[in-house]
Design a protein that fits this description.
By secondary structure, this protein is an alpha+beta fold. A 6-stranded mixed sheet has the order 4-3-2-1-5-6, sandwiched between helices. The protein has a 3-stranded antiparallel sheet with strand order 7-10-11.
Length: 359
């Protein structure tokens, strides 16, 4: 089914074949999860190009695929040239968002003489978009990954106390997820306390947690290849009136979006649902990022809930819903759930409590 859809896409674009470099797209189309490899797809072939570290793995995981292995005398350019000649390819699609110009130029030089140059056509994110509507088995893996995150949040609440560093908190979260079924973290864990919480993508430091801090916890894991993503913000000690005010605005913005998101809306319209709540409250300038993004084999996928994304949402897509307010020298709040888009709303995969927690 997946290969058939990819071949249909190539035909629509007038391409004879595609040279695929994205690890996520290679996994999606072939089942092979190794790194530093490529995938060749034409009307009659589906071939994993790899090195000797991954040959056996590719043969085992890449059901229905040929596997061709490079060696000292036969690099990727040689293998690709052989395939292009076998299929008499004139129009080749490539992933311009993944491959560097240097990489493309080298392969072009190795695969054809000047008089018989093949036309290399950028694919943009068209192959990645094949992954945007999730299959039932994908949704199950995404749900389990998010469930591990929920369990990790319940655990970390018992570990937050004055004097513990952000780095310690991040390490505890990651250890818990890996010891409860996760194969890896899905992105670098964010633990941002106090004034650091005003940085949407703060890096954990040796700063210690202090009474009165906002503490933003943004984390996720991978389960059988699929990612999770969630954020909660808590207060260590008693929240001030200002902290309560900002928190409630973000919570209202998220609940408003969750209550109205559905298939048929554009990513831009989805973003506006939460953004208008924050703007009406007078904090619009402090919400600088989009409302959310899709998640799957990669942590950031398309489409996005963004003022720049006019993609129409479809049932079966995954989106994060993560409004935030970030005020320099004060702190910030972000609340994030991961949801499945449905025809009549959303199915929320995140179950951790969202009312303000004071520890």
């Amino acid at each position: 089914m997946r290969i058939r859809e990819a071949r249909k896409l190539l035909k629509e674009k007038g391409l004879d074949a595609a040279f695929i470099a994205s690890s996520a797209n290679i996994c999606y189309l072939s089942g092979f999860v190794g790194r530093d490899s490529y995938f060749y797809l034409s009307a009659g072939k589906q071939v994993i190009l790899t090195d000797s570290r991954y040959t056996l793995q590719a043969e085992e995981e890449g059901k229905g695929c040929q596997v061709r292995t490079i060696c000292n005398e036969r690099g990727y350019g040689v293998l690709l040239k052989e395939l292009l000649e076998e299929d008499k390819v004139k129009q080749l699609g490539f992933e311009d968002g993944v491959m560097t110009w240097q990489m493309v130029k080298k392969l072009q030089d190795e695969t054809g003489k000047e008089e018989e140059k093949i036309s290399w056509t950028p694919l943009g994110d068209t192959l990645s978009l094949l992954r945007s509507v999730k299959e039932e088995e994908e949704l199950k893996r995404l749900a389990r990954a998010e469930q591990i995150g929920d369990e990790a949040f319940s655990y970390i609440l018992t570990q937050i106390k004055p004097g513990v560093t952000e780095l310690e908190m991040a390490a505890k979260l990651e250890y818990f997820m890996k010891s409860h079924g996760a194969e890896d973290k899905s992105f670098d864990t964010i633990v941002a306390s106090g004034y650091h919480s005003a940085m949407p993508h703060a890096v954990p430091t040796e700063k210690v947690l202090e009474k009165g801090d906002f503490i933003t916890l943004d984390f996720g894991c991978k389960y059988q290849g699929y990612c999770s993503d969630m954020t909660r913000t808590v207060v260590l000690g008693k929240a001030s009136e200002k902290q309560k005010e900002v928190y409630q605005i973000v919570l209202e913005a998220q609940k408003t979006a969750l209550g109205s998101l559905r298939a048929g809306m554009t990513g831009m319209e989805g973003d506006r649902l939460a953004r208008e709540v924050i703007e009406r409250a007078g904090y619009g300038e402090y919400f600088g990022h989009g409302l959310g993004h899709s998640v799957g084999l990669e942590i950031h996928e398309s489409p996005r809930l963004s003022l720049k994304d006019e993609t129409v949402l479809k049932a079966g897509m995954i989106e994060t819903v993560e409004p935030g307010i970030y005020i320099p020298d004060f702190g910030g709040v972000r609340i994030e759930d991961m949801v499945v888009i449905m025809e009549d709303g959303v199915r929320n995969l995140t179950s951790s409590p969202k009312e303000l927690i004071e520890l």
